[in-house]
Amino acid sequence: MPKVTLASNSKFNKGAPCVELLKQNGFEVSLTLNDAFSQGLTGDDDVIEKLNGSDAVIAYGEYYTSKVLDNLPKLKVIARLGVGFDKINMKSATQNNVAVTITPNGNHQSVAEHAITLMMSLAKSIVKKDTLLRNGEWNGDNNKPIRGQTLGIVGLGRIGRSLATRARGMEMNIIASEPYPDMKFVNENDIKLVELDHLLSNADFVSIHSPLNEETTGMFNKKKLSLMKKSAYLVNTARGGLIVEKDLIDILKNHMIAGAGLDVFEEEPTSPQNPLLKLDNVIVSPHMAGNDIQSQIDMGNEAAQSIIDLYNGKWPEGSIVNKEVKETWNW
Length: 331
Prior knowledge:
The protein contains 13 helices and 12 strands. By secondary structure, the chain is α/β, with parallel strands linked by helices. Strands 8-7-6-9-10-11-12 form a 7-stranded parallel sheet, sandwiched between helices. A 5-stranded parallel sheet has the order 2-1-3-4-5.
């Protein structure tokens, strides 16, 4: 019986739908049920120990280094919850003939909803006015509207498109920077495609939805952030490494932009001493944008189905990251 390990935290339990799905298809399932492990806070040796003997893993936030992958000879599949795979050494995974999958359909709506929540909380000063009211101050300062404002979406993949459809319903003007756009979607939703510098200079809200890789790491540095309007807000629900954090801190401290809504950080969990947490023009959340109740179920099932398909000889084209292993991969 093939063994699947679910790198789970307290959000999953033995009765999770993805666990039942795997069991119904003949898999033995074990759960780590360890928050530190699933957050990537344990070392390589612990990952190797917990995944020893596993044929597949439903991965969360733990790291798959070359050392880890070299020491898990039975591992055939890493089915990553979500769409990011920056914690996996893809070169090593491919060399070790490990298929890496993501869940492109599981959480894009949740992330889009979270991005809008951050945007609206910033525009309407929800956190600030909540604090003032609890401290006895009845503050009636005007808020910023959403309708009629220009939203700049950086990355028009599934999440960016989900955000665009919701923003259109709120009567926002949408511009986007995307190297490989779905032109049918762009035209149907009246989206104007622009270069990144133009987007940053003209948007009232900038929402980041780019993947993290060698080309995009640190792409939002002081030079780029300085292009934004003083009245604009920055929202990041993608990856913390896309922004040079010290540059953003300087931009925010000097009120060169109006504020930021951040779900992700350069290092996670971020330190309680992170200066971003001390700024009153910043709203933060703990990398939870894609993790609402429904998306957890959907991602788990999608990851499990990829494992089931691969075991049965069906190649899940839309989910495989390292497609080059197809010719040599076997189970």
